[in-house]
Design goal:
With 292 residues, the chain is an alpha+beta fold. Helix content is 44%, strand content 18%. The chain contains twelve helices and 13 strands. A hairpin with a 2-residue loop joins strand 6 (49-52) and strand 7. The radius of gyration is 20 Å and the shape is globular.
Amino acid sequence: MAEVIHEITPLSERDCFYVVDRHKKEFTYPIHCHSEYELNFIENASGVRRTVGDSVETIGDYDMVLITGNELEHVWEQGDCTSEDIHEITIQFSSELFTEALLNKNQFGSIQTMLENAKCGIKFSMSTIMKVYTRLTDFAIKKPSFHSFISLLELLYELSLANDSVVLSSTSFAKIETQSESRRVQKVQNYVRDHYNEEIRLKDLAKMVGMTSVAFSRFFRQRTGRTLSEYIIEQRLGHAARLLVDSTQTVAEICFDCGFNTLSNFNRLFKRSKGCTPKVFRDNYQKRKIII
């Protein structure tokens, strides 16, 4: 049976972090996941295809991604890249470094938010990469020490200040429960998570939180940055992508099990979101797995 590799990383129990700075011509490692947090930087690799959860993108000359999801599948594949000198810096560090007590301190607020978002994988913009480029490359050549660990904290802090990082995988695919500062939004999100495969009406959700439909629509968009309809579709597509990867159900069965009314509508929405049809998405994921 095809499975995703659960990587045993070189990070030992006695080390705070592990870093590797390498130059290579191609990516050959299959899709995998691991419990360690990972910051991965790549340059001179335009055309490489990056998969994080149900996000599949072709990267440009620079790419930097932070992944903190324990079981979040990810891989970088050669794609159309023809570079003869791909530069990659990978930093892995244990989640045990950041206890709840530490992250709850005011000085760690931005890092806490970043690590939480990175459970679905986050990518950093070119401007952010350029801001930390020298710090990152200097850090990669230092010998592991107390001072280099402080440098890692400084690097993470600088990254956490970026306000234009992008979440990659859907929460439903990554099996992450969303958290909102608004109790009303959280109540609705919990309901959608539990009833995504059923018919969900705006008026019922609005009534649930004691608001009119118009007021709730405006309120939800202001708090989440997307419409209620967009949020529901995103959750359903994430669950569908997960079933395409983990089950042998047919595309039609997955379509209706995830709350979509017609197969044509499901295919259209899926392709618009993921850039390919459900069948192609499943086939590509299977090709990235190995037999164990």
